[in-house]
Structures are given as structure tokens and as C-alpha cells.
Amino acid sequence: MKFYFLALIVLLLFSCDQEEENVSYIEKKWYYISYFGAEGPQCNYAKGDKIYTFGASILEVKNNYYEDDICNVTFLHEGNYTYEVRMINGIDFLFIDDTEQGSVIMDEEGLLLDSSVRSDGVEVDDAPSYRFVS
């Protein structure tokens, strides 16, 4: 009986969804501070202009950027979105409302969302990148 109980515990430990563990680093408040790399505008924001709060599966976007310019419309509008981080071929990809947004890279500056790298392996020329800091 002890063997079956131990086997059940081991099975439960190893059957935990690895994807769940990978998303924990994104679950917090991030400040969207720049948009760059595309043929369009290169936009920089003050910390707090655009706030992205990633919960367990809901992304809340707050917009405190009130300039009437092209930088006001980059990426997502204010509101709530469902999201998921999926690891595909060893790379994390962000999907918002089930639409792929790009690869998620954590570096010394914070979080970088690179839309030039797609999960199907295709590289997109002149695709934007989005920088977030905590």
C-alpha cells in the first residue's frame, strides 16, 4: 500500500504543468516604457504612462498617456484581456486573447516582447518590440 501511495505522489509531482511554472515570472505589474524596431514610430513612455498587470490569466491594461499622437495607440488599448504564455520549441510566446504577440525575453532591463520571432519559426522583418520594466 505504501508503494502505491508513494507512486501516486511521484506521479502528481511529475505531472505538474511545466507551462504553469514558466509564466510565474510575468505575473506582476509591468510598466510599458518603449516601442521600437518597426517602420512606424519609436515611442518612449514615462514609467506609469502605460501599466500592464498580468494576473493568473487576465491582463489589465491601464493607459495614463494622454498625448494626442501616434504613440498613444501602440500595442493594446486600456481594458482587460485573457493571456497565456506558451513554451514552444524552448521559447516562451505570449498569446493575448488567443492571438500570438511574440516571444517573451527576460533580460537585465526587464521584459522584452519581440514580435519579430514567431512560434512557427518565421521571422518577421520590421516587426516591433515592446519593452517593459517592473
What is the rounded distance between the termini? 49 Å
> Total helix count?
2
The CATH topology name reads Lipocalin
| Unreliable segments of 5+ consecutive residues | 1-22
SS content category: mainly beta
- Give the CA-based shape: globular
H/E series, N to C? HHEEEEEEEEE
Q: What CATH architecture do you see?
A: Beta Barrel
Order of adjacent strands in the largest pleated sheet? 1-3-4-5-6-7-8-9
Helix content: 10-25%
User: What radius of gyration results from the CA coordinates?
Assistant: 18 Å
Q: Structurally, how many domains make up the residues? A: 1
Mean pLDDT: 85
Using brief descriptors, characterize the structure shown.
single chain, 134 residues, mainly beta, Lipocalin, 14% helix
